Amino acid sequence: MSTQETKNGSLFTPFNIIAGIILAAGLVVTIMRFTMGLGSVTNLSDNNPWGIWIGFDLLCGVALAAGGYTTSAACYIFGFKRFHGAVRPAILTAFLGYALVVFALHFDVGRPWRLVYPIFYQQGTTSILFEVGLCVFIYLTVLFLEYLPAFMEWKGGFDKYRGILVKLTMGLTIFGVILSTLHQSSLGALYLIAPSKLHPLWYTPYLPVMFFMSSMFAGLSMVICEGTLSHKYFHHKMDDEYNAGYLDLQFAFAKASAWIMAGYLAMKVLGLGMDNRWHYLFTGFGAWWLFEVVGFVVLPCYCYAVGFRDRNVGLVRIAAPWTVIGIMLNRFDVSLIAFNWQLPSADRYFPSVGEIIISLFVVTVGVLAFRFIVTRMPIFFVHPAYKDSSH
Amino acid sequence: MKRRHFLGLLGAAGVTLSTGVSAKAASSADVKGLPNSFGVLFDASRCIGCRKCEAACNVVNELPQPAKPFDDLTVLDTVRRTDAKSYTIVNKYTPEAGKPPVFRKIQCNHCMEPACASACFVSAFKKSETGAVVYDASVCVGCRYCMVACPFGIPTYEYNKVLTPRVMKCTMCQPRILEGKLPGCVEACPKEALVFGKRRELLNIAWDRIGANAGRYVEHVYGEREMGGTNWLTIAPKPSFAAIGMDENLGTTSAPELTSGALAAVPAVAGIWPVLLTGLYAISKRKEKIAEAEKQEAVEQAIAKTSAEAAEKLAAELAKAEAASKRHTEAEVKKALEAAAKAPEGGEDA
C-alpha cells in the first residue's frame, strides 16, 4: 500500500483503485439516500426495520472495536506492560471503529440531525437503546481523548495538554472498561424485548452477557488480525518496542481468547439448558446454530489453544480471522437471520445493493483513515521526542 | 432479599438519580393499568370483512388514498399488514375448509405497558390517560427500535419521505376521543363487531358473550393478559386465535419487564467495576513492587555475600602474604646476622 505508493510515485495502486471505486459508489448511494429517502436505497420494510446497517455497521462494528478496551485494560490495569506497544494501534482501531459506527448511523436513522436528541433533548431512560446511545457517545469521547496524545505528538506544541491526558490514562482506561461492559452487553439486551421475534435458540436472558463475553474475544482477535496485517503493510513504521512485544502479545491474546471462548461456549449451552430448548437443535435452525457454535466458536477456540501450547503463531493467525468471522456470523444471526424467523420467506429481509455499498463504503473510509494516521502519527513507534515518557 | 429484587432496587436508584423520576413509573410493578382508560372490543365472529372501518380510518386520519378503493374486496385475498398509509387492515382467514371465512381487524392494540414506549430512546411514545398509545413525531429520530420491539408488528415507517419520515400507527383516534367522539373505525362498523368503552367494562362484555354462546368462542379474551394486557381486546370464534393469524405464544410478561433486569445491571456495573478494576490494578502494582523488592533484596544479598567472601579471601591472602613476608624478613635478617657474624672472622683471617 503506502510502500508501493512511495516506490512507484503513483496513486494508482490496485488497493487505491478499488478503494476509489467503492468511495465513488458510496457517494452516489449517499446522495440518493439523502435526496430520495431510505426507501430508495434499502430493502428495509415495516417487518424488517433493521438491516445490515444495524446488523453489520453497528453490531459488528462495536464488537470488533472492542480491542481498544481489552488491550488498554491488559496493559494498564492487569499489568502486562510489555504490550505497551500494542495499545496505540488498538486504541486507534477502536476510535475509528466507533467513529464509523456513529457515521453509519447517520445513514440508517430517519432524521440523523436529531441523533443527539436522546442525550440532550428528551431522554427515554427506559430504553436499552438509550443506554447504548449514551455509552457509545461517552466512550467515543474517551477513545478520542486516548487517541489525542498521538495526534499532539505529531503536530507538536501541545505538550501541556498532552501531559494532562497522559496523567488521565488510568482513569480513562477504567472508564472505558465500564462503558464498554455496559454498551457491549446492551447491544445484546436490545433484543430481549422481542422474544416473539428472535428464534428461541438465540433468544436467552443471557444475551447481554453473551454479547459482552464475545466482545472480549472479538477485540482480542481483532488486535491479532490488525497486528498481522499491519506488519505486512506498515512494518517500516514499527519500532523495536512494538516489535519486541508483538509475538508475545499474539500468544497471550490467543490464550486469553481460548479461555474466554470456552466460557462463552459454556454460556451458550447453559442458555439452551436453562429453558430446555434442546429439541430445537434438531430443526433447520438447530443445524445453523450448531454451524455457528461448533464451526465458529469451538473450532477457532481449539486452534487458539493448540496454537498457544505449541507456540505455533501460524495457527493463532488462522484462528483470529476465523473468530472475527464467527462474531460477525453471530451478530447477523441475532439481528437478521434468526430474527423474524417465523415470517414467510417472502417477508424476510435481504440487503439491497445500496445497503451493501454503504457498508463497504464505511469500512473503506475506516481503512483509509487508519492508513492516513499510521503513516504519519506515532502509532507503531514511540515519537523520538517522547522516548522517556511512559505513554 | 432476592437477587432480582436487589438488582431491581439498584436499577430504580440509578434511574431516580439520573432523572429525578421514580423508576417504578417505568416498570410494571405499580401500574394497575389506568382503570378508567378506554379500549375497544373486537368480535371476530361478527366481522363481515366489508372494509368500512379501513375506509373510515383513512378519512379521519387524513391518510393518502390507496391504489384500490375500499369497496374492492378482492384486496382481502392476500394477507396484509399495517403500513405507512393504513393504520388498520382487515384480513380474511379460512380456519376450517368448507366453512365460511373469519375476518380479523388489525390495528395498534394500545398495550397497557407498551413495548414501543419502553423501547423509545426519546420517549416519543406515551401511554395516555385515555388508554391510547400516542406518538410525538417532533422528537422522533427514526431509529425504528419501536418497530423491532412491538410484539404485534404494528408501527410502520415512512421510508420514502426524505426529510420528515414518521412512524405511523393507529392512535385509537385520540383527538376524537378527547372531543367525546367514537374512534373512526368503531363508528363506521355496520355489524357492531367493534365496541368502544372502558376496558374494565369491555372485559365483562367479552366474557359475557363467551359465556352466553356456549361453544362458539375460544374461551379466552385476547389482550386481557397478553404482554401485560392491552386496551384493545379481541374475541374469536373457535378453533383458535392462531387460525386467524394471532400469536398465541406471546406470554403475559410486559415488554418493560423483559428489559428491566438488563437496565438494573447498569448501576451495578458502574458501581462495582471501578472498585474491582482499581483493586486489580493495585494487586498487579503490588505484585510488581514485591517482585521488585525481592529482586533488590536478592541482589543485595548476593552483593553482601560476594563482598564477605572477597573480604575473607583478602584477609586470608593478606595473612598469607604477611606470614610470607615475615618469613622472608626473618630469613633475610638471619642471613644478614650470619653474614655479619662471619665477616670479622674472615677479616681477621685475611
Number of helices of chain A: 15
Biggest sheet strand line-up of chain B:
8-1-9
Mean pLDDT of chain B: 87
Count of DSSP H/I helices of chain B? 8
**What is the number of E strands of chain A?**
0
Shape of chain A: globular
Largest sheet of chain A: none
- Class computed from helices, strands and strand pairing of chain B: mainly alpha
Report how far the terminal alpha carbons of chain A are from each other. Answer: 28 Å
User: What is the radius of gyration of chain A?
Assistant: 21 Å
Overall structural class of chain A, as computed from helix and strand content, comes to mainly alpha
What does this structure look like?
- Chain A has 15 helices and no strands.
- Chain A is mostly helical.
- The longest helix of chain A has 35 residues, at 240-274.
- In chain A, helix 5 packs across helix 11 (207-233), helix 10 (169-189) packs across helix 11 (207-233) and helix 12 (240-274) crosses helix 14.
- With 350 residues, chain B is mainly α.
- In chain B, the strands form four sheets. In chain B, strands 8-1-9 form a three-stranded mixed beta sheet.
- Classes of the chains: A mainly alpha (391), B mainly alpha (350).
Keywords:
heterodimer, A: mainly alpha, globular, disordered N terminus, B: 350 residues, mainly alpha, two-stranded antiparallel sheet, 44% helix
Summarize the model shown.
Chain A is mostly helical and 391 residues long.
List the SSEs and their pairings.
The complex is a heterodimer of chains A (391) and B (350).
Chain A: H1 2-8, H2 14-36, H3 38-41, H4 52-64, H5 67-77, H6 84-108, H7 117-120, H8 128-155, H9 159-167, H10 169-189, H11 207-233, H12 240-274, H13 284-309, H14 313-337, H15 353-374
Helix pairs in contact in A: 2-15, 4-6, 4-14, 4-15, 5-6, 5-10, 5-11, 6-8, 6-15, 8-9, 8-10, 10-11, 11-12, 11-14, 12-13, 12-14, 13-14
Chain B: H1 3-19, E1 38-43, H2 52-60, E2 89-93, E3 102-106, H3 115-119, E4 125-127, E5 133-135, H4 145-149, E6 156-157, E7 167-168, H5 174-178, H6 184-188, E8 194-198, H7 199-212, E9 232-235, H8 255-349
Parallel strand pairs in B: 1-9
Antiparallel strand pairs in B: 1-8, 2-3, 4-5, 6-7
Helix pairs in contact in B: 1-8
